[in-house]
Write a structure and sequence with these properties.
By secondary structure, this protein is α+β, with helices and mostly antiparallel strands. It has helices at about 25-30, 60-70, 85-90, 115-130, 145-155, 215, 235-245, 250-260, and strands spanning about 5, 15-20, 35-40, 45, 50-55, 95-100, 100-105, 165-170, 180-185, 195-200, 200-210, 225-230, 250.
């Protein structure tokens, strides 16, 4: 096991665990015959390799699991048509609904933990901001600037939710066809930095910077109503996937699997 400084607690001379950027359990959820679809800017194809690196000490790696991942991952959609988070969400009527769009106030639903879902999502964004995760490269996967440290302190219970950070959550209604995941990726916004990642059934978006605008009002954590939206077309997910993969090479197997799902 590698010895080094843990990125989470900042303590030196720690035994570092093989930390995953996206939790290992999500790989398992998305597997097809021992493989899963890996989506990057360069390629879209099946692989069995997990993206991991000696990053955190064992206690810190475990705390990210217990503080958010262990709760959130069992709520994701799966190949069998289950989607526990959506089932919990629709137990309470939406605040507004129109055509294929609905907005829900999770504050009215005691069965859903805003704290743990927020911790899970921010944990993935934060890990992407403190390491390259690419062999032979040194630049971090995404750049959050000073907000990376503010998020780290929030995750560890050492600071408040950052003022110039907004987390928004979009949920796809059942049945969810996209049983896959997309690693954190920078989107396009004029006024602030904007990143997204997708796990089965849920798209998380992180906006950072002083020009947040409406994103702060819609923040899943900061807004007292803890809003989420559902959309059958999953427009945000579709847009991100198209943007990430517009120059990517699609393997023949991925193309054939997509035809079968239509």
């Amino acid at each position: 096991m590698e010895i080094g400084t843990c990125k989470y607690c900042r303590k030196p001379d720690k035994e570092l665990a093989e930390s995953h950027l996206v939790p290992a359990a999500i790989y398992d959820l998305c597997e097809v015959d021992g493989e899963f679809v890996k989506i990057t800017e360069k390629s879209v194809g099946f692989t069995g390799r997990h993206l991991k690196h000696p990053l955190l000490c064992e206690p810190c790696d475990g705390s990210l699991s217990t503080d958010g991942e262990d709760y959130s991952i069992p709520l994701l959609a799966d190949e069998k048509g289950n989607f526990p988070l959506y089932d919990l969400l629709v137990k309470v009527a939406p605040d507004c609904a129109e055509d294929d769009f609905a907005a829900y106030a999770v504050a009215r639903n005691p069965e859903i933990s805003v704290e743990k879902i927020t911790h899970f999502a921010l944990g993935v964004f934060w890990k992407a901001s403190v390491h390259s995760w690419r062999k032979g490269e040194t630049a971090n996967w995404i750049e959050l600037g000073p907000y990376s440290e503010e998020i780290r302190k929030f995750l560890r219970g050492e600071g408040a939710f950052p003022k110039y950070v907004a987390l928004t959550v979009g949920i796809i209604p059942k049945p969810v066809r996209q049983i896959s995941f997309c690693l954190p990726y920078r989107g396009s916004k004029d006024t602030c930095h904007y990143y997204m990642f997708y796990v089965p059934g849920i798209a998380f978006a992180l906006s950072v910077g002083k020009g947040l605008g409406d994103a702060k009002q819609n923040c899943f954590y900061s807004n007292p109503l803890h809003p989420v939206v559902t959309t059958a077309l999953a427009g945000d997910v579709k847009a991100v996937m198209q943007h990430v993969t517009k120059k990517a090479h699609f393997s023949n197997r991925v193309i054939e699997e997509a035809k079968l799902r239509r």
